[in-house]
Amino acid sequence: MAVLRRPFNGATVFKGGTGAVNQNIIAEGIGVTEKPKKRTAEVSALVADYQRIKEELNTLRKEHEQNRQALEREIERSNAMAVEAEIINIELNQIINTSPDGILLIDEDFTIRRINRTLLDFLHTTEEEAIGMKCLDLLPSSWCRTEKCPISKIVNGEDQVVECDVVKRKGDGTEIPFIYTATPFRGIDGELMGIMANLKDITERKRAEVTLRKANETLARLATIDGLTQVANRRFFDQTISREWNRLKRTGQPLSLILSDVDFFKHYNDTYGHQAGDDCLRAVAGTLDAHVRRGGDAVARYGGEEFAVVLPGTYPEGALCVAEFLRSAVEGLAMEHKNSSVSSVVTISLGVATAFPSHELTEEALIESADKALYEAKASGRNCAAFRHIVPSCVLSALNHSSKPFNGRPDVPQG
Q1: Would you call 305 a catalytic residue per the annotation?
Q2: Whether residue 230 sits in one domain with residue 314
Q3: pLDDT digits (tens, 9 = 90+) for 294-314
Q4: Cα–chain-centroid distance for residue 119?
């Protein structure tokens, strides 16, 4: 019986077979031993490829793990930054919303991106309604769509800060004064990201300004008012006559002045007492002030019992009419004066003067002429008016030959 045996070189050998059979088997075994060699090389190559792929997979696994860890760290960092940004945003909102001023963050295209609670309450609107609106729709102003718009000035680079006073209407219709301040809002790189608008309520400041203005007006009035008679004082008289002299010098119109004096006022004081004398002066001053009706005219206490009446643009005839009108009005008060030598009641004497202001004359000359006229009235018996002029003769001649009458003051009864 033949026995099959595989030798060390891979050939198949049968023992115990016939010679012919053995030869055939050995011949075929030569080819058989060559195939395992190829297979061995292929297996070796496969093993090498496997090892290489395994190493590559291990490398990829390591890289994947590293990338995963890096991604997790980046996610954690991003989450931390997002949380920090949200905290900052919340804090910023709290800061903005606790501000007593109205605050807006506006884009370059005038779109509102942020608005605080103060301004929302003022406008009686909600954040959802306001965000996304155009500022010119939420807060319309006269400067909207014009070159005066503060937002446009900053966007165009014309100004860095724009400040102005505005008046805005609340939801209930109340008008509130504000200081409107617009400033550029820039990012870290300095690029313009928007415009921050701040509206500060200045109601109290405006009230203080009004109070201060009224106080100043009161002080100015008190500085020019005579404390006893409540008509203008000497200081006001000096300012007025100087101002009117210079004004009429330019226009070529006349300036008339009346100086009046209460007749025998010392006797009145001696008879009735100083308190009654003060009452008398107040009554005379009030009567003169009430009967001098034109806006440009002025009555002032000149000193003691003397009063002055400044009559801008009044010609001699008109000034004499005013003087007689005032004399009659004071006499009509019928205040008893039993120690007067001219009447049983209080009367006044008046001196009237008229001048055409020029560079050759001064207001002092007009005052001096009125004072001399007053002296003449007293010398003529008191309770009357006397007139003196310092008008150049050429002007008087023109007036005497003119067909036009003097300024016949319609506020004074004529004849």
Answers
A1: yes
A2: yes
A3: 888 999 999 999 999 999 999
A4: 18
